[in-house]
Amino acid sequence: ATPTAVMVATGKGASQGVLIKGGSALEKAHKVKTVVFDKTGTLTVGKPVVVSMKVFSPMPIQEFCDIAEAVEANSEHPIAKAVVQHAKKLRQMNSPNLGHIAEVQDFEVHPGYGVSGKVSQKVVLVGNKRLMVARKVPISSEVEDYMSESEQLAHTCVLVAINGMVSGGFAVTDPVKPEAERVISFLKSMNIMSIMVTGDNWATANAVAKEVGITMVIAETDPLGKADKIKDLQSKGMAVAMVGDGINDSPALAAADVGMAIGAGTDVAIEAADIVLMKSNLEDVVTAIDLSRKTLARIR
Ligand code: ADP
Ligand code: MG
Hints:
Elements: H1 3-15, E1 18-20, H2 23-29, E2 34-38, H3 39-43, E3 49-55, H4 61-72, H5 78-94, E4 104-110, E5 114-119, E6 122-127, H6 129-134, H7 141-152, E7 156-162, E8 165-173, H8 180-189, E9 193-197, H9 202-212, E10 216-218, H10 223-235, E11 240-244, H11 250-255, E12 258-262, H12 267-272, E13 275-277, H13 283-299
Parallel strand pairs: 2-9, 2-11, 9-10, 11-12, 12-13
Antiparallel strand pairs: 1-13, 3-8, 4-5, 5-6, 6-7, 7-8
The chain binds adenosine-5'-diphosphate (ADP) and magnesium ion (MG).
Magnesium ion binds at residues 38, 40-42, 244-246, 249.
């Protein structure tokens, strides 16, 4: 496209809340045959809520909840926000006068797995089963049962390990965006295939995919695995777009021919992307591709 055509299209995009960083993304978007979607915060609203909590260790529920909250308060992940919200509510009901959150040392984010830190000398892990397995935390059959019960309901299970033992967990649910199914089916009508990649477990991932009409799912992958999937598709000669919102999506956003970040997402994702969907509405995936198709058709 000519510089003028690119400028016009970029301006038009911006006026619709689709920020296109540079001409190259705009030129590539019309060739896209596959769109890879992240799940949490991209296909789903990204505002999960805790629907159940279970404590396995002999400790007061409030203490368990406070420890999980303290660690998660340092995380930007939507699941972390759900846990913090839940803990706050519980504390307000039980002990409205205790407003403080415990201090956390050595806080670390493990993208695609969870978070960790030290709370009053205790080593705390909050995340999925893969995080527990990686840290050699045993998973009892009681924990397994709680997890599979949650996952069958399309809930995501978060485990909390304290000093190497799973002390409890939370089940969270995150509804899909109202436009998700419509957008997937519209892309299909444009001859564009949709794929879901997620760090979440297979059972929850499949349940969400079914809801939005996606048949190709890749679950339980870490951030580099997401990028590998993009490269895999590209090696078959496909132009691939990636839509994501999290730190965990940034390698894939950078690897894709066209990386699209959800505007409400994290700064790292927005930086890694070529296009930012300011309204966080999935319909703008179509807007962006459409804009590119029209811009390139006009100059031919
Ligand atoms: P998605 O690919 O669906 O956006 P992520 O890669 O962000 O998901 O996270 C994958 C999984 O890692 C989550 O489903 C959750 O089990 C776990 N996880 C990541 N961050 C956190 C956190 N802060 N607290 C609890 N669990 C987390
Ligand atoms: Mg996400």
